[in-house]
Amino acid sequence: xxxxxxxxxxxxxxxxxxxxxxxxxxxxxxxxxxxxxxxxxxxxxxxxxxxxxxxxxxxxxxxxxxxxxxxxxxxxxxxxxxxxxxxxxxxxxxxxxxxxxxxxxxxxxxxxxxxxxxxxxxxxxxxxxxxxxxx
Length: 135
What we know:
Elements: E1 9-15, E2 18-20, E3 29-30, E4 36-42, E5 51-59, E6 67-77, E7 85-91, E8 98-106, E9 111-113, E10 115-121, E11 133-134
């Protein structure tokens, strides 16, 4: 039998593509059975005075009280980060079961906020222990 990567992965579109000028909240993402979460944020053109901070938070229950994950924040600056893709990985073993990914918008003007996707992976493909974001 061939190894089918889709059997060990789950893709969740967290924020649909659209132009935004306000905060964006996500639904709870159930991470049970997965070892890693890869967060991908793709943005278009931002107003020069706008910023968007995308923060990952966790909770033990989907409707529970969520706490920010230390280091799991990407700040997108309208004066420097137009048309960029940011990615970061979280190791889930030992983490609380549910994730949310919220975007905090500040400034004036709008951001063409392409999309935010979380890829959950059940395969131990790396020994990463911290969340890192890169452009």
